[in-house]
Amino acid sequence: MAIDTSKVATSNSSAATPAKPGRAGAVATWADERLGLAGMAKKNLRKVFPDHWSFMLGEIALWSFVVLLLSGVFLTLWFTPSMSEIHYEGSYDQMRGIAMSEAMASTLGISFDVRGGLLMRQMHHWAAMLFIASMMIHLLRVFFTGAHRKPRELNWVIGSLLLLLGTLEGFTGYSLPDDLLSGTGVRAADGFMKSIPVVGSYMSFFLFGGEFPGDSIIPRLYIIHVLLIPGLLLALIAAHMLLLVYHKHTQWPGPGRTEENVVGFPMLPVYAAKAGGFFFIVFGVTALMGGLMQINPIWLYGPYDPSKVTAGSQPDWYMGWPDGALRIMPGWETHLFGNFTIAWNVFLPIIVLPGLMFTILMLLPFLEAWITGDKREHHLLQRPRNAPTRTALMVALMTFYGLLWMAGGNDIIAIKLNSSINTITYMLRFLVFVGPIIAFVITRRWCISLQRHDNEKLLHGYETGIIMRSPEGGYSEKHLPINPSAAYVLSARERDEVYTVEQETDENGIPAPASRAKALRAKLSTLWFADNVQAPTAAEIEAAHHHADHEHELQAALDGHAADGHQFDGHHSVEGDPLRGSDQH
Amino acid sequence: MRLLNRSAGRLSRHRRSRLAGLVLLLIGLLTTGGITYAVMPSSSAGDAQSNAVQVEEGRKLFLQGCSFCHGQNGEGITTINGDNYGPSLVGVGAAAVHFQVETGRMPLVQPGVQGQAKPETYSAEEVEQLAAYVASLGPGPARPDEAEWTTAGLTEEEREAAISRGGQIFLTNCTACHNFNGKGGAMPQGGYAPDLSNTEAVHIYEAMLTGPGQMDSFSNGNLSPEEKRDVIAYLYSLRDQPAYGGFSLGGLGPVSEGMFAWLLGIGGLVGFAVWIAAHTTRTKKKKVEA
After folding, report:
1. What positions does the domain Cytochrome b/b6 N-terminal region profile occupy (chain A) (predicted)?
2. Cys bridge to A392: A276, A338, A381, A443, which one at CB 3.0-4.6 A?
């Protein structure tokens, strides 16, 4: 086969020789000869990532964590983690002369006497809110698209641990100023610990170094907040990202995208620019929020004093849902042996429930894999509608979370919507059980009808809005085929495989080992996929299109009698073919 | 005088104008002065007589507007279930009348959990007459005089001390219902502790003195007149100070902060993510143009 050389330049008279390396090249060579980074960089700088907005949600968390590290370092330069009592003599008039802990006084100092201090404090707090919120929306994206399936289950567990640690980091952080609100929160945490049967009071005394409040809780929370948890967070974030690189990013199905490849743009220059730019956007949004929106005005709360409390004493939003559970829990208590109390009203909602929910969260990928019996690797994402039960399960969990969240703000809802706090509380006691079930059923049926709609579009095309009248006088709407790339996205999904028990007994009639578990699994798998609509087979699509062609042939004979507007049926060009009568205008 | 000596550097547009306090004070002085002058008897002999006239006028108003619930002699009405249809007003004093009627809580629009503040129904003269009538039913707290809550006579240092003392009294006794910012909070069965951001000093004083609705009454033995003055001075100092740190987001604490973090913060950042992902690499764009 002859090679076409007409496009090759003919002016090159001599062989190419490498140019003398520039200064940057010399530095790079020097470093590479000592560190050996070139091999790794060569591979990873060109690493390909797929492009979709929903893949950037975790990045918000990463960048807000960077903002947290930067602003946090600034705050440590002035914050004094001490509970020694002093009299405030700073520049905030209303608190002057009031006795407070050094922690509170130094936080007031950061807010009013350190240049840029209040901005940094507020940026740190807003970034913390965004950090946890973005981890949660990232989690939802991963679950709704099926990115938690094999081989990424362990990364899901790491992500869940990051969410838990982020929450604890937030709690220890907002407790540090030792103001009225955070002190109330620490007092509540003390109560939560003491509600644990048998060991609770010992744990509380251990943490506080004696009876609440003592004088060691702030220094202890401080070192947990600035050293212990950030260290763990950094390590887990590193592991999370390394696994991301190792697994490669998931991608949406599309032409040319398979389970074996990743289609997208390379790290350099495209993603480095996109991600780097996004960091500045996250930083900018946080700075704007910190500069324009007041958060945690400790000067209004004043120093903590166990004899004081304020209306609207809520934790930050991420602790709102267990607080809501606590608020709607009936006041159940059991008294044993006359002097031993089990405070179910505290223990169940605030110790048992979050532990249970977190365990469910971590186990979700394993539960799903066990029920479906799916051992295959998955790198192509699923649309939420194509896994109706999974989508519905997460929506049910979200509904449960949202209702408890609402309960956590029951007093604010009551005053802002002019309703009774009692009514809200009684309604929510009922709704937290019923709401998730309703949400599950609605979401599941909704997904299935969306699947049906997708199949309609694949088999019969989209609705054109053109109404045809048949010779008999009947009316029908004309459908036209959707374009091939849309059809690809709709049809590029696997058919659900229901787990079935292969053989219950062997040839001698002996039940197979663990057959009972297998039978349960088969039953759950059937329920999991029940009523799902499967993507049509190629033969079905072929048959449907053939049927449509046949219809068009029948219509062709009627062309002479077509109603006005029929010329726009999409079967032929309409250029220079206006509606009859349109020239009269 | 304190109202004139406001601290500089206000940031929020949502607060009243610098001159509003002064104008309000002038209007108040002119109105009260005018009314006093108009109804002021020329001789001391007429004083008792004029009080009797006021009580009589007040009784007429009371019979017309209040007796349906409070009874024809202000003795209160009990329903057949033993509930209070309208409480007895014997001994509530003129201060209670002033507070309830001037803030529009009385007369009620309809029975409910608690009276709603609304534009007042009665003129200042009529309120005086009603108050005189109710005060005549039994001894009770009289309407406080401005001298009792003004900090005008204090030196700068004394005033500052009064404000920080008032803040501590407020945080100890009031924030549990009215919130740390005086923005109000929820009470059982649909009741609420109202937002204090625009309540006049005299009404704050009268509320502490008489304990309207579900509020405790802080008698002078409980909170001395000076302590009441300090609380008012603290609340006014919060109105005067700039909104440090930016928009206060309703001043309701972490719930509204969380809402803004989600709606503005996460909403905005997701919007930016969509924007970034929608802009693919430049090379492809040029190809399309070519």
Report:
1. 27-253
2. A443
- First vs last Cα of chain B: how many Å apart? 75
Q: Does B8 touch chain A (CB under 8 A)?
A: no
On chain B, the residues whose CB falls within 8 A of the CB of A302 are: 167-168, 171, 180
User: Does B66 carry a binding-site annotation?
Assistant: yes
Per-residue tokens: A334: 């059991």
* Residue B256 near residue B189, CB atoms below 8 Å: no
Partners of residue A274 on adjacent β-strands = none
CATH number of B144-245: 1.10.760.10
Q: Do A311 and B193 touch (CB under 8 A)?
A: yes
**Whether ipTM exceeds 0.95:** no
Domains of chain A: 52-317 (1.20.810.10), 383-502+513-563 (no CATH)
- The DSSP secondary-structure symbol of A21 reads P
Bridge partners of A477, per DSSP, are A467
> How far from B12 is each of A108, A295, A298, B242, CA to CA, in Å?
21, 16, 19, 6
CB atoms within 10 A of CB A254: 14
Of A293, A296, A422, the CB nearest to B189: A422
CB contact under 8 A, A313 and B253: yes
Which of A295, A301, A318, A406 to mutate to test binding with chain B, by most B CBs within 10 Å of its CB? Answer: A295
- Candidates A49, A52, A296, A412: best to mutate against B (most CBs of B within 10 A) is A412
| CB distance A466 to A569 below 8 Å | yes
Q: Where are the alpha helices (DSSP H) in chain B?
A: 20-39, 45-65, 67-70, 93-102, 124-137, 156-173, 175-178, 201-210, 225-240, 254-260, 267-278, 282-289
Q: Are A100 and A88 in contact (CB under 8 A)?
A: yes
Residues 32-91 of chain B with CB under 8 A from chain A are: none
Q: Which residues pair with A266 in a beta bridge?
A: A48
Would you give the end-to-end CA distance of chain A in angstroms? 64
Judge contact between A548 and A569, C-beta under 8 A: no
Token pair of B197, please?
Answer: 């951001």
Contact B253 A293 (CB under 8 A): no
B203 marked ligand binding residue: no
Interchain proximity A285–B256, CB inside 8 Å: no
Per-residue pLDDT of A458-468, as tens digits, reads 988 888 888 88
Domain segments of chain B: what residues? 50-143, 144-245
* Pairwise CB contact (< 8 Å): B244 & A310: no
DSSP states of A20-77: PP-HHHHHHHHHHHHH--HHHHHHHHT-EE---GGGGHHHHHHHHHHHHHHHHHHHHT
Q: What's the mean pLDDT in A201-208?
A: 95
Pick B50-143's CATH classification: 1.10.760.10, 1.20.1250.20, 1.20.140.10, 3.40.50.300.
1.10.760.10
- Confidence band of A250 (pLDDT split at 50, 70, 90): very high
Asked if B163 is an interface residue toward chain A (Cβ–Cβ < 8 A), one would say yes
SS3 of A365-411: the string is HHHHHHHHCCCCCCCECCCHHHCHHHHHHHHHHHHHHHHHHHHHCHH
Strands A48-49 and A475-480: unpaired
Is a pLDDT exceeding 50 seen at residue A560?
Answer: no
- Among partner residues A137, A277, A423, which is closest to B266 by beta-carbon distance? A137
Tell me whether strands A462-469 and A475-480 are parallel, antiparallel or unpaired: antiparallel
Q: What chain B residue is nearest to A121 in terms of C-alpha separation?
A: B245
For the beta carbon of residue A433, count every other beta carbon within 10 angstroms: 10
- Count the neighbouring beta carbons within 10 Å of the beta carbon of residue B237: 22
**Encoding tokens for residue B282?**
């430049």
Tens of pLDDT, residue by residue over A55-110, are 999 999 999 999 999 999 999 999 999 999 999 999 999 999 999 999 999 999 99
CA distance linking residue A234 with residue A238, whole number of Å: 6
